[in-house]
User: Which sequence fits this backbone?
């Protein structure tokens, strides 16, 4: 994958570039937002990793610019020191596909980038999907944990599969609602929290099993696989 | 007006209606208004044209005749000659109004008798019975035998003046009854000559003589001229000739409705003409009179009554004009006399009576209202009435004075208080014009170079001086919603205001306008910006270099940097980051506006435990949870979760490896009816002494190095927990002793 990195801090840019190169991606580093937009005119990138506060043009402005100017805007990952929860919501709402707060460990960065790539360029989903110890059979709507069958309701199965398929990706409440209950469901927001709570308990989605279900302030949920 | 007063007014309306109707009835039947009616009648008659007298010829025995023929009484041969002369002209009838009651020279009387007998229809008067003592039926005095035998008919020629001496009426007896009026006889004869079957149509009974304006216009000739043959016979032909004395000293003279004094002869001519023309005026019967009297009265009362909406004076004017007009039209067109006096009197009495009663009731109502107003609690010292308890107009006026004084005082009071309000306050009417502005508002807008003129300045013009903070658009005015609205606005980069716009309502809930208040929040805004700047500095500007340090360490080749130093550098960089994060979180916990939602405390507990898994896993600390059922609280999920993270994180930090942390969720129903969710976190760590426990919520306080294992932290964690719990109306409690572990219990109110 060809990845453009917008980062004015040389050390960080180097870390990101090194990490992604190890994962087999080709990276190009830009220190200025304007320069990046010019490059986007000429070349195609599969993914953008954007810092928020950079010279020339902010990361958010770049996302907006790609929506307006590129035929197929590439997915974008915000990588920034702005850790306030309002900033995270603002970034995701503005169209970022994910939001990672600095400092970042190579393992987290790799996992998040791979999640975006997988979603943006999906391979055909097999009938049986294996995520760590979890085995999802989409024909029979059954799920097994280490060979043990777990009884889930249809909605819980769909929610679990949605989270696993979008591993490391922040899913908004609206997105999950629409995927599970269709458009404009007249449901209390508590419903989603209750379902999340149920699958966490039933599937034991806990760090002990290598997974962590993270609520994102005022936005939604993200399933993370912990580095072993 | 209250129901009681309306009922009272309605009763009085009925009373006045009945009383005025009775008055009209009495006045009508009693003819009390006769003099007034006569005056009206006399005036109305003048509106008609003069009586024309084509069929009447007056032959007057006037001063000229006396002069030419010698002194009165004349020799009866002169009368005989006169009759002969008239007869020669071939008149339709002759009414010879000269009395021949005294017998004279028989030869002369015989000569007169012959002349009369030859004259065709000729009628002579008799002397009506003298007004003798009551009850005595006096006989009329008839003419002498010769005349009586020769005349076609004998009638009385008297004139009956009304009580005021004016002649208006003549009475025509029915045909069969005697005596008949001389003129009625003459008219009958004349009509019979013209139309034989129409004679009977002469109206019977008392009738009003149709005196025209300015007297009659008939031909008048002097008797002397007739005798001398100076009158052409054409003047006599087919006329009714009336002969009578008008000379000075002869015959009576009477005042008439025309205002002129007329000779009896002239009055008779009017009567005759009226009879012949069938123009006699009929007095109306009692039913018509009552109708004329009562209908306008009732119309007036309905017009003025509780249902009426028309202006009273107009109704009275219209009713009176209608009465007079009906009366005049009947008289002049229908020749029917409807005296309007009683009707006008009814109107004239009912209108002021009703007005007076209305005023009285209104005055009572006003007094009651004013008294109530006076007794209402007042913000101001009460105006004491000088002589309370008196009734009557003076008391009402005193009450009204008090009410007005109170109102004025109130206005001053309100204006003063408004002026003394520290914030700029404007009161606008519904279209947005400024009605009131306090001193602070004048000062504020003077600093914007805008003058406020009460009653002229538009609120929207003033609001245009500022823009909504953030969006920069104008303040919406008037607001669409009826609920009070608050906007944060700015004049420039340094001046910020909170603008509150609230609808202003009257006591009855009707919208009356707007109250606009400007609160200067520039200082608070500056402080907030400063805080934001610090937070911004910590979140981004301070974090970035730390992140870069970590990135350098991550990417540096192991041979370029000593791993021991690298570890130390990483440790300090991470600690700086935690410090910044801790500070930012605390600032958020303190200043953020909480967006509360229903969250499960159990979910948040698991979120926190999962978040701390790396730490607990590293120290092989088992975290167990008890009490799994959902426990919903209203809270800010991220802050509450972080608070739990801080508490459990502390527990991990100060616990030896391989120990256990127990998190228990319980529900507590307290005696005061409150329901609480309790989350207790018990560790098996080093515990705290009393001194540390007392200060544990202080900022930057960390457990003493000697007390527990070597730890790292910012020392803001428990301050944050405390702030979050307080802002959630919850509590945090701690049970600890050195070496015995620590149990924190967080309590949050459960919704509902």
Assistant:
């Amino acid at each position: 994958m060809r990845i453009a990195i917008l980062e004015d801090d040389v050390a960080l840019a180097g870390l990101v570039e090194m990490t992604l190169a190890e994962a087999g991606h080709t990276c190009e580093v830009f220190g200025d937002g304007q320069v990046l937009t010019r490059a986007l005119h000429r070349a195609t990138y599969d993914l953008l990793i954007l810092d928020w506060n950079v010279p020339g043009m902010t990361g958010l402005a770049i996302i907006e610019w790609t929506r307006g100017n590129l035929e197929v805007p590439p997915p974008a990952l915000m990588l920034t020191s702005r850790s306030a929860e309002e900033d995270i919501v603002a970034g995701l709402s503005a169209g970022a596909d994910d939001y990672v707060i600095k400092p970042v460990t190579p393992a987290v960065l790799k996992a998040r980038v791979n999640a975006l790539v997988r979603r943006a360029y999906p391979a055909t989903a097999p009938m049986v999907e294996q995520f760590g110890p979890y085995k999802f059979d989409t024909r029979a709507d059954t799920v097994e944990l280490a060979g043990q069958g777990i009884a889930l309701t249809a909605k819980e199965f769909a929610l679990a599969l949605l989270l696993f398929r979008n591993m490391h990706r922040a899913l908004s409440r609206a997105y999950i609602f629409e995927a599970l209950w269709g458009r404009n469901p007249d449901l209390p927001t508590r419903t989603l929290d209750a379902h999340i709570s149920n699958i966490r308990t039933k599937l034991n989605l806990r760090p002990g099993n290598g997974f962590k279900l993270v609520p994102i302030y005022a936005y939604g949920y993200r399933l993370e696989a912990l580095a072993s | 007006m209250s129901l009681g007063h309306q009922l009272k007014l309605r009763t009085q309306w009925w009373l006045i209606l009945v009383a005025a109707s009775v008055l009209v009835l009495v006045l009508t039947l009693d003819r009390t208004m006769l003099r007034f009616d006569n005056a009206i009648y006399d005036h109305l008659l003048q509106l008609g044209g003069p009586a024309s007298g084509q069929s009447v010829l007056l032959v007057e025995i006037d001063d000229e005749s006396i002069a030419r023929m010698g002194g009165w009484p004349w020799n009866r041969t002169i009368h005989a000659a006169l009759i002969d002369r008239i007869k020669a002209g071939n008149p339709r009838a002759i009414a010879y109004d000269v009395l021949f009651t005294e017998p004279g020279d028989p030869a002369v009387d015989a000569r007169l008798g012959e002349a009369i007998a030859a004259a065709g229809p000729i009628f002579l008067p008799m002397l009506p019975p003298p007004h003798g003592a009551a009850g005595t039926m006096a006989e009329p005095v008839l003419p002498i035998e010769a005349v009586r035998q020769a005349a076609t008919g004998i009638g009385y020629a008297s004139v009956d003046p009304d009580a005021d001496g004016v002649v208006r009426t003549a009475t025509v007896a029915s045909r069969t009854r005697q005596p008949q009026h001389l003129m009625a006889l003459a008219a009958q004869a004349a009509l019979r000559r013209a139309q034989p079957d129409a004679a009977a149509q002469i109206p019977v009974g008392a009738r009003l003589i149709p005196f025209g304006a300015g007297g009659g216009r008939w031909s008048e000739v002097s008797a002397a001229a007739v005798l001398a043959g100076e009158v052409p016979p054409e003047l006599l032909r087919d006329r009714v000739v009336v002969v009578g004395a008008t000379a000075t000293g002869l015959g009576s003279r009477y005042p008439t409705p025309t205002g002129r004094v007329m000779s009896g002869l002239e009055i008779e001519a009017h009567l005759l003409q009226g009879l012949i023309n069938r123009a006699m005026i009929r007095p109306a019967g009692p039913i018509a009179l009552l109708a004329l009297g009562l209908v306008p009265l009732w119309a007036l009362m309905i017009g003025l009554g509780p249902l009426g909406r028309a202006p009273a004076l107009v109704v009275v004017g219209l009713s009176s004009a209608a009465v007079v007009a009906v009366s005049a039209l009947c008289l002049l067109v229908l020749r029917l006399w409807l005296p309007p006096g009683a009707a006008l009197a009814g109107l004239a009495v009912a209108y002021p009576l009703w007005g007076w009663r209305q005023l009285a009731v209104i005055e009572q109502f006003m007094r009651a209202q004013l008294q109530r107003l006076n007794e209402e609690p007042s913000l101001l010292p009460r105006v004491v009435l000088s002589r309370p308890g008196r009734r009557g107009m003076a008391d009402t006026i005193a009450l009204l004075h008090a009410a007005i004084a109170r109102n004025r005082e109130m206005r001053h009071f309100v204006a003063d208080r408004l002026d003394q309000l520290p914030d700029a306050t404007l009161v606008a009417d519904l279209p947005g014009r400024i009605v009131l502005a306090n001193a602070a508002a004048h000062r504020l807008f003077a600093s914007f170079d805008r003058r406020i003129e009460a009653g002229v300045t538009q609120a929207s013009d003033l609001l245009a001086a500022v823009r909504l903070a953030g969006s920069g658009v104008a303040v919406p005015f008037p607001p669409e919603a009826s609920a009070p609205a608050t906007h944060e606005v700015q004049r420039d980069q340094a001046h910020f205001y909170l603008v509150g716009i609230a609808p202003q309502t009257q006591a009855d809930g009707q919208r009356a306008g707007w109250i606009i208040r400007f609160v200067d929040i520039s200082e608070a805004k500056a402080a907030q910006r400063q805080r934001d700047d610090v937070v911004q500095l910590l979140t981004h500007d301070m974090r970035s270099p730390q992140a870069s340090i970590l990135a350098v360490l991550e990417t540096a080749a192991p041979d370029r940097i000593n791993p021991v130093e690298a570890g130390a550098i990483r440790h300090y960089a991470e600690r700086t980051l935690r410090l910044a994060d801790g500070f930012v979180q605390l600032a958020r916990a303190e200043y953020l506006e909480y967006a509360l939602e229903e969250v499960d405390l159990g979910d948040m507990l698991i979120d926190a435990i999962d978040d701390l898994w790396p730490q607990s896993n590293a120290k092989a600390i088992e975290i167990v949870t008890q009490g799994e059922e959902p426990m919903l609280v209203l809270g800010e999920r991220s802050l509450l979760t972080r608070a739990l993270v801080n508490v459990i994180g502390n527990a991990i930090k100060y616990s030896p490896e391989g120990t256990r942390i127990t998190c228990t969720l319980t529900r507590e129903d307290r005696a005061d009816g409150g329901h609480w969710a309790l989350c207790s976190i018990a560790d098996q760590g080093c515990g705290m002494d009393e001194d540390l426990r007392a200060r544990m919520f202080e900022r930057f306080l960390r457990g003493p190095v000697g007390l527990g294992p070597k730890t790292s932290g910012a020392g803001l964690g428990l301050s944050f927990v405390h702030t979050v719990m307080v802002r959630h109306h919850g509590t945090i409690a701690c049970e600890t002793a050195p070496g015995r572990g620590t149990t924190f219990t967080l309590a949050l109110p459960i919704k509902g």
User: Anything to note?
Assistant: Helices of chain A lie at 10-22, 33-42, 59-69, 85-94, 106-120, 154-165, 173-181, 190-202.
